[in-house]
Specification:
single chain; about 140 residues; alpha+beta; HIT family, subunit A; five-stranded antiparallel sheet; globular; HIT-like; HIT-like_sf
Amino acid sequence: MSSVELDERLVRDSYPVAELPLSQLRLMDDTRFPWLILIPRRKGVSEVFDLAAADRHQLWHEASEVSRMLKELSQADKINVASLGNVVAQLHVHLVARRRGDDAWPGPVWGHGQAQPYDLDELASMRDHLLARLDGLQLEL
């Protein structure tokens, strides 16, 4: 796998959780929404169609498996999956657990209010819960 330098905004706004077969999995630093990001470890990729076919399949497989796990963990009503790239061009896929009545419901989470950062205990707890659940997933195609 290629080593890829992450955009500084992704590093600043999120925490590493795990290395999946294709992607780095990161947790957005906002306790209002259980929010994960998948960042494929491929250089110079800004669009899903820039990936080789096998990598596209792997990315959506990872997104599906991690989304299912996140929905169960957070008891969300809906998982929003998006790859915008308007601010950060490096390809990354957002997986956001949404609940009816959350701070941004029913609108998008982007640009809504101020992020509420994790404190160290919350971060450790969330990361531990995610890692425990990731263990049971079939992430390799």
